Amino acid sequence: QELRPKSLDIKQEELGDMVEKEMASTSEAIEDAVRRIEEMMSQARNESSGVKLEVNERILNSCTDLMKAIRLLVTTSTNLQKEIVESGRGAATTQEFYAKNSRWTEGLISASKAVGWGATQLVESADRVVLHTGKYEELIVCSHEIAASTAQLVAASKVKAEKSSRNLARLQECSRNVNEMAANVVASTKSGQEQIEEKDTMDFSGMSLIKLKKEEMETQVKVLELEKRLEGERVRLGELRKQHYGLAGGCEDAPEDGEARPAPAPRRGILKKPPIAQKP
């Protein structure tokens, strides 16, 4: 009893109920996320237009596809979990099976929580991006987190599942689909960010003649500064390469006593003058 893990201080009969509650809670979180994305889509169409509307729709559509993939993943994981319990409990009850495999049960609960939390965070980040109060990078990080928690859920389920289980094969397929949809969210977010930043940078409509002239002069100053910095970095790169080549040659030919020796002359026949190319 002293050696048993104490991370879950609950009774044996409560452990099985907790697994079912967490899976149900995750499903509810996914359903709520889908509804919120639909509301954001409707709000974006009413309050934005042009490039911003196009970007918001593309991002929200990719988030919707990801939520649908996660919903299917959770459903398949629940089916596999029931199959594992039925095939492994024998004459024991479901609660006894969960209590006997408490470490596995804890991993399953943790993975389910992580998936639900990732979905909620993704929706909140998408909401802030659409309202222009958040960062696009938040969506990218949330997508990576969802992919990681999905891998955790599959790993937790795979430990007890039979290799020939159809539900396990479906779960792995769902996991690949979630990863693909998460990658689509990242791609749509990055392209949308570039599109918005380019539009904001190049939108000069509404500027007065004096404002345009001032912007032009400031841009010329920046160009000169960048050109000077670029030239300095090129000189620095050249010096670094010289030092690198010098050290590399010195290391290859350095004697044991540390004194420099001249590089050995190349053998005859190894470095030949290339033949002159014939004119066509």
Counted beta strands? 0
Helicity, as a percent range: over 70%
Mean pLDDT reading: 78
Poorly predicted ranges (pLDDT <50, ≥5 residues)? 254-263
Helix/strand order, N-terminal first: HHHHHHH
CATH superfamily label of one domain: I/LWEQ domain
CATH architecture of one domain: Up-down Bundle
What is the fold-level CATH name, i.e. the topology of one domain? I/LWEQ domain
Shape annotation:
flat
Distance N to C terminus: 88 Å
Task: Note the beta-strand portion.
Answer: under 5%
Which secondary-structure class do the elements indicate?
mainly alpha
Give the C-level CATH assignment of one domain.
Mainly Alpha
Count of separate DSSP helical elements: 7
Q: Outline the biggest β-sheet.
A: none
Radius of gyration, CA atoms, in whole angstroms: 30 Å
Pfam family, one: I_LWEQ
GO molecular function: actin filament binding; clathrin adaptor activity; clathrin light chain binding; phosphatidylinositol-3,4-bisphosphate binding; phosphatidylinositol-3,5-bisphosphate binding
Main location: cytoplasm
Protein name: HIP1R protein
Helix-strand blueprint:
Blueprint (H helix, E strand, L loop, with lengths): L11 H36 L2 H39 L5 H7 L1 H29 L5 H25 L5 H37 L6 H45 L27
Helix pairs in contact: 1-2, 1-3, 1-4, 2-4, 2-5, 2-6, 4-5, 5-6
Which structural traits does this protein have?
mainly alpha; 280 residues; I/LWEQ domain
Description of the structure:
With 280 residues, the chain is mainly alpha-helical. The protein has a domain of 185 residues: I/LWEQ domain, CATH 1.20.1410. The protein contains seven helices and no strands. It is flat, with a radius of gyration of 30 Å. About 4% of the residues have low confidence.
